[in-house]
Amino acid sequence: MAIFLANHKERAGAMVKPKPSWRLLLALFCCACLALAPALAEARGGGSYGGRPSSFGSRGLRSWDNNGAQPLSRNLAPQTPSQPNFRPGVPAPGGGSYFQRHPFLTGLAGGFFGSWLFGHSAYAEGGAGSGSAIGTLLWLAAIGLLVWFLVRRFRSRAFPNGWPAAVPSLVAARSAGAAAPAARFRGRDVNLSDADLQEFQRLHAEIQEAWSAGDLARLRRVMTPEMLAFFSEELRRNTSRGVRNRVSHVQLVRGDLREAWDEGDRQYASAFLRWRAIDYVLRLSAPDGDRNSIVGGDSRVPVEAEEVWTFVRRHGSDWLLSAIQQV
Protein backbone atom coordinates (compact mmCIF):
# COMPACT_ATOMS: atom_id res chain seq x y z
CA MET A 1 0.00 0.00 0.00
CA ALA A 2 2.81 2.44 0.85
CA ILE A 3 4.53 1.68 -2.46
CA PHE A 4 1.26 2.29 -4.30
CA LEU A 5 0.80 5.67 -2.58
CA ALA A 6 4.39 6.63 -3.38
CA ASN A 7 3.95 5.70 -7.03
CA HIS A 8 0.62 7.58 -7.12
CA LYS A 9 2.23 10.72 -5.70
CA GLU A 10 5.09 10.42 -8.18
CA ARG A 11 2.64 10.15 -11.11
CA ALA A 12 0.62 13.06 -9.77
CA GLY A 13 3.76 15.19 -9.52
CA ALA A 14 4.68 14.28 -13.07
CA MET A 15 1.19 15.29 -14.28
CA VAL A 16 1.41 18.79 -12.81
CA LYS A 17 4.97 19.34 -13.97
CA PRO A 18 4.87 22.52 -16.12
CA LYS A 19 5.51 22.15 -19.79
CA PRO A 20 8.25 24.22 -21.35
CA SER A 21 6.85 27.47 -22.70
CA TRP A 22 6.90 28.02 -26.45
CA ARG A 23 8.26 31.48 -25.72
CA LEU A 24 11.27 29.95 -24.04
CA LEU A 25 11.85 27.59 -26.96
CA LEU A 26 11.53 30.49 -29.43
CA ALA A 27 14.03 32.57 -27.45
CA LEU A 28 16.52 29.68 -27.38
CA PHE A 29 16.09 29.22 -31.12
CA CYS A 30 16.79 32.92 -31.76
CA CYS A 31 19.88 32.78 -29.56
CA ALA A 32 21.14 29.76 -31.48
CA CYS A 33 20.59 31.57 -34.79
CA LEU A 34 22.54 34.57 -33.56
CA ALA A 35 25.35 32.38 -32.30
CA LEU A 36 25.62 30.52 -35.59
CA ALA A 37 25.17 33.57 -37.82
CA PRO A 38 28.89 34.38 -38.08
CA ALA A 39 29.56 30.93 -39.47
CA LEU A 40 27.18 31.70 -42.34
CA ALA A 41 28.53 35.17 -43.07
CA GLU A 42 30.33 35.92 -46.30
CA ALA A 43 33.90 37.12 -46.72
CA ARG A 44 35.69 38.96 -49.49
CA GLY A 45 38.44 41.53 -49.96
CA GLY A 46 38.70 43.46 -46.69
CA GLY A 47 36.30 41.24 -44.74
CA SER A 48 37.41 38.39 -42.51
CA TYR A 49 35.54 35.11 -42.30
CA GLY A 50 32.99 35.08 -39.50
CA GLY A 51 31.91 38.70 -39.90
CA ARG A 52 30.01 40.66 -42.49
CA PRO A 53 32.01 42.98 -44.77
CA SER A 54 32.19 46.41 -43.18
CA SER A 55 32.76 49.95 -44.42
CA PHE A 56 36.20 51.29 -43.64
CA GLY A 57 38.87 53.71 -44.81
CA SER A 58 38.91 57.46 -45.40
CA ARG A 59 37.28 59.80 -47.92
CA GLY A 60 39.13 62.92 -46.88
CA LEU A 61 36.88 65.87 -46.12
CA ARG A 62 33.85 63.86 -47.21
CA SER A 63 34.43 60.90 -44.90
CA TRP A 64 31.21 61.52 -42.99
CA ASP A 65 29.04 62.75 -45.86
CA ASN A 66 25.97 60.76 -46.82
CA ASN A 67 26.77 59.36 -50.27
CA GLY A 68 24.09 56.66 -50.39
CA ALA A 69 26.34 53.94 -48.90
CA GLN A 70 26.89 52.70 -45.37
CA PRO A 71 28.86 55.15 -43.19
CA LEU A 72 32.47 54.34 -42.45
CA SER A 73 32.54 52.24 -39.29
CA ARG A 74 36.35 52.09 -39.13
CA ASN A 75 38.21 55.26 -39.92
CA LEU A 76 41.49 56.78 -38.75
CA ALA A 77 40.75 60.27 -40.06
CA PRO A 78 40.00 63.12 -37.62
CA GLN A 79 36.40 64.06 -36.96
CA THR A 80 34.74 66.51 -39.31
CA PRO A 81 35.45 70.16 -38.41
CA SER A 82 31.85 71.20 -38.97
CA GLN A 83 30.74 69.03 -36.06
CA PRO A 84 33.43 69.30 -33.35
CA ASN A 85 31.64 66.93 -30.99
CA PHE A 86 30.64 64.42 -33.65
CA ARG A 87 31.81 60.86 -33.19
CA PRO A 88 30.38 58.03 -35.31
CA GLY A 89 28.04 55.82 -33.29
CA VAL A 90 28.19 58.04 -30.18
CA PRO A 91 25.12 60.19 -29.39
CA ALA A 92 25.66 63.84 -28.67
CA PRO A 93 25.46 64.99 -25.03
CA GLY A 94 21.84 65.34 -23.99
CA GLY A 95 20.72 63.48 -27.12
CA GLY A 96 19.24 60.08 -27.65
CA SER A 97 16.14 58.58 -26.13
CA TYR A 98 15.32 58.71 -22.44
CA PHE A 99 16.31 55.08 -21.92
CA GLN A 100 19.64 55.66 -23.71
CA ARG A 101 20.42 58.41 -21.22
CA HIS A 102 19.25 56.22 -18.32
CA PRO A 103 20.45 52.65 -18.90
CA PHE A 104 19.51 51.72 -15.33
CA LEU A 105 15.82 52.10 -16.20
CA THR A 106 16.31 50.09 -19.35
CA GLY A 107 17.89 47.24 -17.42
CA LEU A 108 15.21 47.43 -14.74
CA ALA A 109 12.38 47.28 -17.25
CA GLY A 110 14.16 44.48 -19.13
CA GLY A 111 14.57 42.53 -15.91
CA PHE A 112 10.88 42.78 -15.11
CA PHE A 113 9.92 41.82 -18.64
CA GLY A 114 12.39 38.93 -18.72
CA SER A 115 11.17 37.59 -15.39
CA TRP A 116 7.62 37.67 -16.73
CA LEU A 117 8.51 36.17 -20.09
CA PHE A 118 10.68 33.29 -18.88
CA GLY A 119 9.29 32.88 -15.40
CA HIS A 120 5.58 33.59 -15.17
CA SER A 121 4.67 32.70 -18.73
CA ALA A 122 6.51 29.40 -18.63
CA TYR A 123 4.15 28.18 -15.91
CA ALA A 124 1.06 29.98 -17.09
CA GLU A 125 0.52 27.54 -19.92
CA GLY A 126 0.04 24.75 -17.45
CA GLY A 127 -3.23 26.35 -16.29
CA ALA A 128 -6.50 27.02 -18.05
CA GLY A 129 -6.39 28.81 -21.38
CA SER A 130 -8.66 31.73 -20.48
CA GLY A 131 -7.10 32.15 -17.06
CA SER A 132 -3.62 32.16 -18.57
CA ALA A 133 -4.62 34.81 -21.12
CA ILE A 134 -6.18 37.03 -18.45
CA GLY A 135 -3.12 36.60 -16.24
CA THR A 136 -0.83 37.53 -19.11
CA LEU A 137 -2.82 40.71 -19.80
CA LEU A 138 -2.74 41.63 -16.13
CA TRP A 139 1.03 41.14 -16.01
CA LEU A 140 1.50 43.29 -19.12
CA ALA A 141 -0.71 46.04 -17.67
CA ALA A 142 1.15 45.97 -14.37
CA ILE A 143 4.57 46.13 -16.05
CA GLY A 144 3.42 48.94 -18.34
CA LEU A 145 2.11 50.99 -15.42
CA LEU A 146 5.31 50.41 -13.47
CA VAL A 147 7.56 51.48 -16.36
CA TRP A 148 5.36 54.55 -17.02
CA PHE A 149 5.52 55.53 -13.37
CA LEU A 150 9.31 55.17 -13.21
CA VAL A 151 9.80 57.15 -16.43
CA ARG A 152 7.58 59.96 -15.18
CA ARG A 153 9.28 60.04 -11.80
CA PHE A 154 12.85 60.10 -13.13
CA ARG A 155 11.99 62.56 -15.89
CA SER A 156 10.47 65.01 -13.43
CA ARG A 157 13.56 64.79 -11.22
CA ALA A 158 16.05 65.10 -14.08
CA PHE A 159 14.25 67.93 -15.92
CA PRO A 160 12.14 69.91 -13.42
CA ASN A 161 11.66 72.70 -15.98
CA GLY A 162 10.70 70.32 -18.75
CA TRP A 163 13.98 70.82 -20.75
CA PRO A 164 17.43 69.25 -20.62
CA ALA A 165 20.20 71.41 -19.28
CA ALA A 166 21.73 71.99 -22.73
CA VAL A 167 18.55 73.29 -24.37
CA PRO A 168 18.15 76.66 -22.52
CA SER A 169 21.69 77.69 -23.42
CA LEU A 170 21.02 76.78 -27.06
CA VAL A 171 17.81 78.82 -27.06
CA ALA A 172 19.59 81.73 -25.40
CA ALA A 173 22.38 81.63 -27.97
CA ARG A 174 19.90 81.70 -30.82
CA SER A 175 17.86 84.50 -29.24
CA ALA A 176 21.06 86.50 -28.79
CA GLY A 177 21.55 86.40 -32.53
CA ALA A 178 24.44 83.96 -32.63
CA ALA A 179 25.81 83.65 -36.15
CA ALA A 180 25.25 80.38 -38.00
CA PRO A 181 28.42 78.39 -38.67
CA ALA A 182 29.97 78.82 -42.09
CA ALA A 183 29.46 76.08 -44.66
CA ARG A 184 32.10 73.39 -44.38
CA PHE A 185 34.62 73.17 -47.20
CA ARG A 186 34.14 69.85 -49.00
CA GLY A 187 36.74 70.23 -51.72
CA ARG A 188 36.34 71.32 -55.32
CA ASP A 189 34.36 69.04 -57.66
CA VAL A 190 36.33 67.88 -60.72
CA ASN A 191 35.78 65.69 -63.78
CA LEU A 192 37.71 62.54 -64.59
CA SER A 193 38.62 60.87 -67.87
CA ASP A 194 37.68 57.41 -69.14
CA ALA A 195 41.25 56.32 -68.47
CA ASP A 196 40.70 56.97 -64.75
CA LEU A 197 37.55 54.85 -64.74
CA GLN A 198 39.39 52.00 -66.45
CA GLU A 199 42.12 52.29 -63.82
CA PHE A 200 39.51 51.89 -61.07
CA GLN A 201 38.29 48.68 -62.69
CA ARG A 202 41.83 47.35 -62.98
CA LEU A 203 42.60 48.19 -59.35
CA HIS A 204 39.42 46.48 -58.18
CA ALA A 205 40.37 43.21 -59.90
CA GLU A 206 44.00 43.41 -58.78
CA ILE A 207 43.09 44.04 -55.14
CA GLN A 208 40.71 41.07 -55.07
CA GLU A 209 43.40 38.86 -56.62
CA ALA A 210 46.05 40.03 -54.13
CA TRP A 211 43.64 39.56 -51.24
CA SER A 212 42.88 36.03 -52.37
CA ALA A 213 46.61 35.25 -52.49
CA GLY A 214 47.29 36.97 -49.16
CA ASP A 215 49.97 39.07 -50.89
CA LEU A 216 50.57 42.08 -48.63
CA ALA A 217 53.46 43.35 -50.76
CA ARG A 218 51.16 43.62 -53.74
CA LEU A 219 48.39 45.19 -51.67
CA ARG A 220 50.85 47.81 -50.37
CA ARG A 221 51.35 49.11 -53.91
CA VAL A 222 47.65 49.71 -54.64
CA MET A 223 46.17 51.14 -51.42
CA THR A 224 46.79 53.70 -48.71
CA PRO A 225 48.64 52.72 -45.51
CA GLU A 226 45.35 52.96 -43.60
CA MET A 227 43.63 50.48 -45.90
CA LEU A 228 46.69 48.22 -45.84
CA ALA A 229 46.42 48.10 -42.04
CA PHE A 230 42.77 47.03 -42.27
CA PHE A 231 43.45 44.36 -44.90
CA SER A 232 46.43 43.07 -42.93
CA GLU A 233 44.32 42.82 -39.80
CA GLU A 234 41.65 40.78 -41.59
CA LEU A 235 44.23 38.45 -43.12
CA ARG A 236 45.75 37.82 -39.69
CA ARG A 237 42.30 37.13 -38.30
CA ASN A 238 41.60 34.57 -40.99
CA THR A 239 44.95 32.92 -40.35
CA SER A 240 44.26 32.71 -36.60
CA ARG A 241 41.01 30.91 -37.42
CA GLY A 242 42.77 28.50 -39.76
CA VAL A 243 40.95 29.62 -42.92
CA ARG A 244 41.66 31.56 -46.09
CA ASN A 245 39.35 33.40 -48.47
CA ARG A 246 39.50 32.70 -52.18
CA VAL A 247 38.06 35.24 -54.65
CA SER A 248 38.35 34.48 -58.37
CA HIS A 249 36.68 35.16 -61.72
CA VAL A 250 36.01 38.78 -60.76
CA GLN A 251 33.67 40.45 -63.22
CA LEU A 252 32.50 44.07 -63.03
CA VAL A 253 28.79 44.19 -63.84
CA ARG A 254 28.33 47.93 -63.44
CA GLY A 255 30.55 50.86 -62.54
CA ASP A 256 29.38 54.46 -62.05
CA LEU A 257 31.39 57.45 -60.89
CA ARG A 258 29.60 58.98 -57.89
CA GLU A 259 31.80 62.03 -57.24
CA ALA A 260 35.32 63.35 -57.68
CA TRP A 261 36.94 66.30 -55.94
CA ASP A 262 40.23 68.05 -55.17
CA GLU A 263 41.63 68.67 -51.68
CA GLY A 264 44.79 70.70 -52.08
CA ASP A 265 47.41 68.41 -53.55
CA ARG A 266 45.13 65.35 -53.37
CA GLN A 267 42.33 64.17 -55.59
CA TYR A 268 39.55 61.78 -54.51
CA ALA A 269 37.01 59.80 -56.51
CA SER A 270 34.17 57.53 -55.34
CA ALA A 271 32.71 54.94 -57.71
CA PHE A 272 29.75 52.59 -57.33
CA LEU A 273 30.77 49.02 -58.26
CA ARG A 274 28.48 46.07 -58.77
CA TRP A 275 30.52 42.97 -59.35
CA ARG A 276 30.31 39.20 -59.20
CA ALA A 277 32.94 36.62 -58.37
CA ILE A 278 33.55 33.13 -57.07
CA ASP A 279 33.90 33.75 -53.33
CA TYR A 280 34.45 30.97 -50.81
CA VAL A 281 36.39 30.16 -47.64
CA LEU A 282 38.38 26.96 -47.10
CA ARG A 283 40.71 25.55 -44.48
CA LEU A 284 44.20 27.00 -44.47
CA SER A 285 45.98 23.72 -45.21
CA ALA A 286 43.58 22.61 -47.94
CA PRO A 287 44.48 22.87 -51.64
CA ASP A 288 42.45 25.16 -53.89
CA GLY A 289 39.34 23.54 -55.28
CA ASP A 290 39.04 20.94 -52.51
CA ARG A 291 35.27 21.05 -51.94
CA ASN A 292 35.52 18.90 -48.83
CA SER A 293 37.55 21.62 -47.11
CA ILE A 294 35.20 24.51 -47.92
CA VAL A 295 33.70 26.05 -44.77
CA GLY A 296 31.79 28.91 -46.39
CA GLY A 297 30.59 30.00 -49.81
CA ASP A 298 30.63 28.00 -53.03
CA SER A 299 33.55 27.35 -55.36
CA ARG A 300 31.30 27.07 -58.42
CA VAL A 301 28.39 29.52 -57.97
CA PRO A 302 29.32 33.23 -58.27
CA VAL A 303 27.90 35.83 -55.89
CA GLU A 304 27.24 39.53 -56.44
CA ALA A 305 28.26 42.48 -54.29
CA GLU A 306 27.49 46.19 -54.39
CA GLU A 307 30.05 48.58 -52.92
CA VAL A 308 31.33 52.14 -53.19
CA TRP A 309 35.10 52.29 -53.58
CA THR A 310 36.97 55.56 -53.03
CA PHE A 311 40.37 56.16 -54.58
CA VAL A 312 42.92 58.88 -53.87
CA ARG A 313 46.06 60.18 -55.58
CA ARG A 314 48.47 63.04 -55.38
CA HIS A 315 48.62 65.07 -58.55
CA GLY A 316 50.88 63.25 -60.96
CA SER A 317 50.82 59.96 -58.98
CA ASP A 318 48.88 56.70 -59.29
CA TRP A 319 45.44 56.04 -57.84
CA LEU A 320 45.29 54.15 -54.53
CA LEU A 321 42.33 52.55 -52.76
CA SER A 322 41.25 54.80 -49.89
CA ALA A 323 37.91 53.42 -48.65
CA ILE A 324 35.32 50.66 -49.19
CA GLN A 325 31.67 51.17 -48.30
CA GLN A 326 28.92 48.57 -48.42
CA VAL A 327 25.67 49.45 -50.17
Secondary structure elements and pairings:
Blueprint: H1 2-15, H2 22-40, E1 56-57, H3 98-101, H4 103-124, H5 129-158, H6 166-175, E2 188-189, H7 194-213, H8 216-220, H9 225-240, E3 243-263, E4 266-283, E5 294-297, E6 303-314, E7 320-326
Antiparallel strand pairs: 1-7, 2-3, 3-4, 4-5, 4-6, 6-7
Question: What's the quick description here?
Answer:
The protein contains nine helices and seven strands.
- Strand share of the residues? 15-25%
Task: Give the C-level CATH assignment of the largest domain.
Answer: Alpha Beta
What's the total number of strands?
Answer: 7
Under CATH, the topology of the largest domain can be stated as: Nuclear Transport Factor 2, Chain: A
Q: What does the overall shape look like?
A: flat
Order of helices and strands: HHEHHHHEHHHEEEEE
- Helical run tally: 9
Structural class: alpha+beta
Biggest sheet, open or closed, and with what strands and sense?
Answer: 7 strands, antiparallel
Number of spatially distinct domains:
2
Question: Could you estimate the helical fraction of the residues in percent?
Answer: 40-55%
Mean pLDDT: 74
Radius of gyration: 29 Å
Low-pLDDT regions: 1-9, 31-41, 79-102, 121-125, 161-173
Can you name the CATH architecture of the largest domain?
Answer: Roll
Report the end-to-end length measured between terminal Cα atoms.
75 Å
Structural write-up:
It is a single chain. The chain has 327 residues and is α+β, with helices and mostly antiparallel strands. It has 2 domains: 41-86 and 188-326, Roll (Nuclear Transport Factor 2, Chain: A); 99-163. The chain is 43% helix and 20% strand. It is built from 9 helices and 7 strands, in the order ααβααααβαααβββββ. The chain has helices at residues 2-15, 22-40, 98-101, 103-124, 129-158, 166-175, 194-213, 216-220, 225-240, and strands at 56-57, 188-189, 243-263, 266-283, 294-297, 303-314, 320-326. α4 runs antiparallel to α5. The model is unreliable at 1-9, 31-41, 79-102, 121-125 and 161-173 (pLDDT under 50).
